[in-house]
Amino acid sequence: xxxxxxxxxxxxxxxxxxxxxxxxxxxxxxxxxxxxxxxxxxxxxxxxxxxxxxxxxxxxxxxxxxxxxxxxxxxxxxxxxxxxxxxxxxxxxxxxxxxxxxxxxxxxxxxxxxxxxxxxxxxxxxxxxxxxxxxxxxxxxxxxxxxxxxxxxxxxxxxxxxxxxxxxxxxxxxxxxxxxxxxxxxxx
Length: 188
Fold this sequence. Notes:
about 70% helix
C-alpha cells in the first residue's frame, strides 16, 4: 500500500457514509489486491476448495450489502476481516452439511497454534475464536487481522490504534488460549 492509499481509503469511506455508492467501487479497487493476496494466503492449503477470487468476491458482496457506515480505515478492516472469516466459515459448514454428517473441512492452523501437526476443523476454530472474542475482544481482533487478513504486527497495531508491543502480547496470549481450547494442551 502506498502512502496515499490510507488517505484515499478514509476519503472514500466518508463518501460512502454520505451515500455515494460509486465510492464503494473505488474503495474496492484500492483494497482488491490486498484482499486477493489474503485470499491466496488462506487458500494455499490443498484441502481448502474455495478459490481466492471467489473468496474476495463473496466478501465484496457481503460488504456492499451493508449500509457503509464504517467510521474509518480501522473500522473498515475490522468489518472486512469479519466478512472474510464468515465466508470461510459458511463455506466449511456447507461442505460439512454436504457430506451428511461429515466433520467439515479440515484446515491447518500452524501459524496460529505454533504446531505443525495442528489439523483442526474450521468450524471448531470459528467457535473457539467466538469464545475468545467474548473473553477478550481485542485479542480476537488481533487473530482476525494477523491470521485471517494477514497483516503484520505493525499494520495490526495501526489498524487497532495500539502499540506493536501490545499487539505482540495479545497475539501470543490469543495463540496460547486457542492452542489450549483447540488442542486440549495445558501448556501455554
